[in-house]
TrEMBL record:
This is DUF2294 domain-containing protein. It comes from the Bacteria. Pfam families: MpsC. Residues 5-113 form the Na+-translocating membrane potential-generating system MpsC domain.
Length: 121
């Protein structure tokens, strides 16, 4: 039986939460994944620590937190691509991420080799 779009999105969210906890040492408060055309867009909320919020009060600290957090995620990008491939059967051709030091949210965009959403509809 084919998995539904919602089931795949939920599985991606669950696996990324597991990856965060095992690779980064702590997970986000919530994760929401959406399949849109040839992209998977993931929003992770509540990822900054209280200490990181304190650092973000000035520009130098803010840039340091962004750079550090993005470097940590980028260092695990192959594992993230493998997670997406295992769940969807789709190759990730590019990966984008950024973090908001104001809201503590991270957005990850996985660009896939084909239009997964149309295959699921």
């Amino acid at each position: 039986m084919e998995k539904s779009k919602g089931a795949i999105e939920a599985e991606i969210s669950k696996e990324l939460t597991h990856w965060e906890k095992s690779y980064l040492g702590r997970g986000s408060v919530s994760v929401k994944s959406d399949i849109l055309r040839d992209m998977i867009i993931v929003v992770l909320r509540g990822i900054l620590t209280p200490a990181e919020y304190s650092l973000c009060e000035d520009q130098r600290g803010l840039l340091a937190v962004k750079q550090n957090r993005n470097s940590l995620v980028e260092s695990g990008v192959e594992e993230l691509k493998n997670i997406i491939y295992t769940i969807t059967g789709q190759e990730v051709i590019s990966f984008y991420t950024d973090i908001s030091t104001r809201t503590g949210e991270r957005v990850i965009v996985f660009k896939l080799s084909t239009d997964l959403e149309s295959q699921l509809n």
